């Protein structure tokens, strides 16, 4: 059932923004984007970013934004951008570089930090993924660090995938915290040997579940399986670049197919998602089917996106500013340059709507702000941070 049309007051939303501490200076790009349930205002709140990949909001309202070439940008309430020192040297060949970023779920809420922007509290850790160069190529890597002024300190390397390889693509790299305090991390199949995604002795083409210090939780699904690495949470994933954990604790991911076949999956422990044996995608050169549509012991996708969507970035809408979208997913698209809303009903997509198409270019990341607004990054050489709010 479609909820009745309702457009929330921008004044109310801005009140929420003020309550959180800051309202970023903004350039209005479109004042009234009509959608099925809400009219939207699109604003650019920071620019001058170099291929931004992911963002994380600090408790004081500032944003940390990773830039794929290897910089970590700190954006203040006025949209001013400062690059931080202390970032590891990344390999930015191909699709590699500085990639996803999340805060510890208790960041700013313990130790000596109180409600600070970060630094000294027991849980004031910033987690980020990056492509590390090594013998034989590169590997998806997880590190954490603390923020001190305009630099990262106490940088720790927590996890490195087990095999360095070429070429420089399909790093996956999305991060999301589960409700039990463990961390999900995606790793793509690395692009040249898709069969790695079916190999339990290889981190490629899978999700990992890790502790906050990079260890293996005792209840990971394969810890008693001698043929499968203990860190593995799933198998058969091609290149997941959208990931979110919803209010009810479910993990959802969007995943690149090859030529079409991009998927939405509910991520569950021990599940094999089929790649490359099961896929609706097609070969890049011949446009012929690669695998079968379905197979025993392998999980079919919840939803397959139309055409070449190229997913990246995924968020659940929980804001009172968008009441008709409560519980819906917002999925960003790269080559499609689209933002799509997916309404779920019993883990099935019951409604699909294109929200943006071309207004901001290649959408790399989608996040819900503490103030209830929707934030987007575009993957451009001169990229920007955008905000969606309800129109007046």
Write a structural description.
The longest helix is centred in the first third of the chain and has 11 residues, at 10-20. The two termini are 26 Å apart. This protein is mostly beta strands and 392 residues long. The protein has a single domain (10-390), classed as Neuraminidase, CATH 2.120.10. It contains one helix and 24 strands.
Q: Can you give me a brief rundown of this structure?
A:
The protein has one helix and 24 strands. With 392 residues, the protein is mostly beta strands. The relative contact order is 0.15.
* Spatial arrangement of strands, main beta sheet: 1-2-24-23-22
CATH superfamily: TolB, C-terminal domain
Rg over alpha carbons: 20 Å
Which structural class is indicated by helix and strand composition?
mainly beta
What composes the largest sheet? Answer: 5 strands, antiparallel
Low-confidence stretches: 1-23, 112-118
Integer average pLDDT? 92
How much of the sequence lies in strands comes to 35-45%
Q: Tell me the CATH topology.
A: Neuraminidase
Shape: globular
The overall strand count is: 24
SSE sequence, one letter per element = HEEEEEEEEEEEEEEEEEEEEEEEE
The span between the termini is 26 Å
Percent range for helical residues?
Answer: under 10%
- Could you say what the CATH architecture is? 6 Propeller
Summed up, the domain count is 1
- CATH class label: Mainly Beta
Number of discrete helical segments: 1
